[in-house]
């Protein structure tokens, strides 16, 4: 059984948040050595269980959730590490389908902080510059400690950004990986072309690991080539997940034709029933190299078909066998996807989606079209966006898709002010009926009206917290 190899000064949950907030000053550091050294100082908790790693611009959180749920249905004790949180920091670490307790979260942060202190003390003694230990470095090491102490069998790790330098890549027990797709996001750090970003994500593909290349890696050909070249270089044979029909992956594919690779194993899926309303059933038939699963159902929009299918293939590859069909059906239909086409108020209906870049917004819009084809009958859209995103690209997609907009600003320091967002939205043809300086004020104004809210994970989180009154999701 894993034990922390040093004494730790305890922290309260609030104090652990202060530790994380203070680390924000270091921003993002493209290096793994700090996390690797901290894990070593902690006694290698990441070697106490196996890991699955998932990267991708969009869809990786849902794929991670479905993977964790499917493996739990197979009888494994499963941990899940995702980011960012929707409402509360401890949501980033889940064990057996629930966020870890706040005292356990605080303890794991305390261990990670002490490991960082010891590592930097040793470096200074050697005349080396101490590491700038980031928020995500600390969280990732803390997650490994929490999962080891809980004696999990497997941890599903969602990359925070990219893959090559992502802190999750420091885990030494990664057996299986998947890349859901590639879009233009975090371009300042990952590169300003799809091919450059693909290269960063493809770095998680390494010798000895199984690999699934999701729908979003298929186009354009120049992007798919990046992944296939990487697989050849490291001696990995990937399973290619591709839709049987292009419209089954609406919003998931970049421009370009789907190529056929007869020398590689392929998994396919076909949507046999599209949901006709919010909360309606999505039914998918999936064929993998190991089995066929017909009638897999989720109370989700059509874009989740690609994520469910990717999770099924990834789970098979990790286990090295086909799945129990009955357990699979139960695991998928009951799996929560907080913030993803998520109904947070039943009447009048309030729905949130955490789409936050043009690609994920296009996927969200495709789901809205499936529920209500007539733009005039769609509810008002509550919109708040972060200033460092492609705001105009987001507005250009959304403007013709909703009859009216209510524009607001989240509490994030990165939030774009409501007046600037309203101006861009109007320039793109959107009908802005009102602006509010906070999400809470906007929701008060919409208390007796149906609405959809999107634009950022922060937007989804604030709406969820206000309407659900919960720190769980």
TrEMBL record:
Residues 339-446 form the Mur ligase C-terminal domain. Its EC number is 6.3.2.17. Residues 54-207 form the Mur ligase central domain. It comes from the Bacteria. It is an enzyme of class 6 (ligase). GO terms for molecular function: ATP binding; dihydrofolate synthase activity; metal ion binding; tetrahydrofolylpolyglutamate synthase activity. Keywords: ATP-binding, Ligase, Magnesium, Metal-binding, Nucleotide-binding. InterPro entries: Folylpolyglutamate_synth (IPR001645), Mur-like_cat_sf (IPR036565), Mur_ligase_C (IPR004101), Mur_ligase_C_dom_sf (IPR036615), Mur_ligase_cen (IPR013221). GO terms for cellular component: cytoplasm. It catalyses: (6S)-5,6,7,8-tetrahydrofolyl-(gamma-L-Glu)(n) + L-glutamate + ATP = (6S)-5,6,7,8-tetrahydrofolyl-(gamma-L-Glu)(n+1) + ADP + phosphate + H(+). NCBIfam families: folC. Belongs to the folylpolyglutamate synthase family. This is tetrahydrofolate synthase. The lineage of its organism: Bacteria, Bacillati, Actinomycetota, Coriobacteriia, Coriobacteriales.
């Amino acid at each position: 059984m894993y034990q922390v190899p040093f004494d730790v000064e305890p922290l309260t949950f609030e104090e652990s948040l202060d530790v994380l907030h203070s680390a924000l000053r270091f921003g993002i550091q493209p290096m793994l050595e700090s996390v690797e050294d901290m894990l070593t100082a902690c006694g290698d908790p990441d070697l106490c269980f196996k890991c699955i790693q998932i990267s991708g611009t969009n869809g990786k959180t849902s794929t991670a959730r479905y993977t964790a749920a499917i493996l739990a249905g197979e009888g494994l004790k499963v941990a899940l590490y995702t980011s960012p949180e929707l409402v509360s920091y401890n949501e980033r670490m889940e064990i057996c389908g629930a966020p870890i307790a706040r005292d356990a979260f605080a303890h794991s942060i305390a261990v990670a902080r002490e490991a960082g202190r010891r590592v930097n003390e040793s470096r200074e003694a050697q005349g080396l510059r101490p590491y700038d230990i980031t928020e995500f470095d600390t969280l990732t090491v803390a997650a490994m400690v929490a999962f080891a102490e809980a004696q999990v069998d497997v941890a599903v790790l969602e990359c925070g950004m990219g893959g090559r330098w992502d802190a999750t890549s420091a885990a030494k027990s990664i057996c299986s990986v998947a890349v859901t797709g590639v879009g233009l996001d975090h371009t300042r750090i990952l590169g300003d072309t799809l091919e450059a970003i693909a290269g960063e994500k493809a770095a998680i593909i390494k010798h000895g690991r199984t690999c699934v290349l999701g729908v979003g890696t298929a186009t354009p050909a120049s992007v798919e080539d990046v992944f296939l070249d990487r697989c050849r270089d490291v001696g990995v044979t990937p399973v290619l997940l591709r839709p049987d029909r292009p419209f089954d992956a609406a919003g998931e594919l970049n421009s370009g034709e789907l190529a056929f690779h007869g020398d590689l194993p392929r998994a396919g899926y076909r949507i046999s029933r599209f949901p006709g309303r919010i909360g309606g059933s999505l039914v998918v038939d999936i064929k993998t190299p190991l089995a066929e699963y017909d009638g897999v159902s989720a109370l989700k929009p059509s874009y989740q078909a690609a994520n469910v299918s990717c999770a099924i293939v990834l789970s098979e590859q990790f286990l090295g066998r086909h799945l129990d069909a009955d357990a699979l059906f139960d695991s998928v239909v009951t799996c929560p996807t907080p913030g993803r086409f998520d109904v947070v108020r039943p009447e009048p209906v309030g729905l949130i989606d955490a789409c936050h870049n043009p690609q994920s917004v296009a996927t969200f819009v495709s789901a809205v079209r499936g529920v209500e084809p007539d733009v005039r009958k769609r509810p008002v859209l509550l919109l708040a966006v972060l200033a460092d995103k492609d705001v105009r690209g987001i507005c250009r997609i959304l403007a013709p898709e909703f009859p009216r907009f209510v524009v607001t600003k989240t509490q994030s320091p990165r939030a774009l002010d409501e007046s600037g967002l309203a101006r861009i939205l109007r320039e793109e043809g959107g009908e802005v009926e009102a602006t509010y300086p906070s999400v809470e004020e906007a929701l008060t104004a919409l208390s007796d009206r149906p609405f959809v809210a999107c634009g950022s994970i922060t937007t989804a989180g604030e709406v969820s917290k206000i309407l659900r009154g919960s720190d769980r999701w």
